[in-house]
Amino acid sequence: MIKVTVWNEYRHEQEEERISKVYPKVIHSAIAEFLGTNEDIKVTTATLYDENNQLRENAGITDELLADTDVMIWWGHIAHGQVPDEIAIKVKEAVLAGMGIIFLHSAHHSKPFKLLMGTTCNLGWRESDDKERLWILDHNHPIMAGFEDKRFIELEGEETYSEPFGIPDPDKLLMIGWYNGGEVFRSACCWRRENGKIFYFQPGHESYPTFYNKDVQRIITNAVRWVNPQCRIKLECPWIARLEEK
Ligand code: ZN
Description:
Elements: E1 2-8, H1 12-15, H2 17-22, H3 27-35, E2 41-47, H4 63-67, E3 71-75, H5 85-97, E4 100-104, H6 111-117, E5 124-136, E6 152-162, E7 172-179, E8 184-193, E9 196-201, H7 214-227
Parallel strand pairs: 1-2, 1-3, 3-4, 4-9
Antiparallel strand pairs: 5-6, 5-7, 7-8, 8-9
Helix pairs in contact: 5-6
Bound molecules: zinc ion.
Residues 77, 105-106, 159, 205 line the site of zinc ion (ZN).
């Protein structure tokens, strides 16, 4: 079983009625629900704010949770700054040791993503109900499994994200998003950082029903299996004895 933790800042759904109408079961539960239909995936959720709109200690992330998570999924937007630095560092170190991680949409500015990238992760953005067409660049990558017959997928409405995207070159770029406002964006990017695999996926603005889209659900599900580690490696820099006699 792949143990997945879906982390959400859980702010928009509690603060704005128009968002809670799109995600009445909240964003983390919407993601947990479709992932949980897979027999090889076991999902839990963690949130920065609890259901009474109170800030949780340690952003809801304990050492035990990190040790028991194979794959973390991160959704955040307006509360990136409320995640304690020491928690972001622990998430980064878990990834370096092997934990897989998927950053969704506005998680491009989350502390763990910026720590793992080492760059600004800035981009251009606009909310104007643009249609997005995401072009598939590599049908043979495991994250694109099931799209053999498609050249692209389309989302009727998404927030527009635009290049330049302030990231290090992805080890593998899987999709380029095009918007009918004219912009393009590197929408599905893969990296390795030491022992951990990282996937960034751009769709998922809170005011659109993106996480109910079957293509989006398939890509996130495939990504969970792709970033899932074989094992966790202890991060250490040990003195080592000679193996052979002099
Ligand atoms: Zn957004």
